[in-house]
Amino acid sequence: MSWKTAKRLWEANQDLAEACLNHPFVRGIANGDLSRESFKFYVGQDAFFLESFARAYALALAKAPTGTSIYAFRDQLDGVLDELRLHQTYAKRWGIELAPEPASATRSYTDFLLRVAWSEPVESIMAVMMPCMRLYSYLGQQLAPRLNPDSPYREWVDTYSADDFDLLAGKLEDLYNEHLGYEQSATRAEGYYRTAMKLELAFFQQAYEYSL
User: Rounded to two decimals, what is the model's pTM?
Assistant: First the structure.
């Protein structure tokens, strides 16, 4: 089995996954200590990011080589829209602007994501998108046992620890593994995957620093 499979790409980036899990922003979500302003900033920036994520899925769907992959990308796109509905709930509750000016880490991530989505085939697009899906499922599952039931952010943990979200992440990884025959794109997978993981960590750091 190729070392470039989704599982092995994830395993090769455990250092960054652990850095995200142990980041004070992520820990603050679980224990409820994160400042409200930092979380509100994060939600707005994440809504901007998720709109780009949805566009990337739409581009992957347009480039999908089989009917099966078309339906798979449609399901992934539906999952992003569900996440945006969670953000809309927070926006109504706390008066969050969901169309903000993108901050530097947000812009770096969305520019990277959309550049690959516009210019490269579906295998490369998936290599850029898988880290977000798998990381958030991992964070949700790791945080769930230590979640403070009084945390104002518990819906975030509940959403990403859910079996449905893990299943969606797994379906994207399975779809990626089915396309490993495209060697030209697969050879780029390691670099794309790690870049996306670094951008995830920068995204949390950006939100954490917002209210410092």
Answer: 0.93
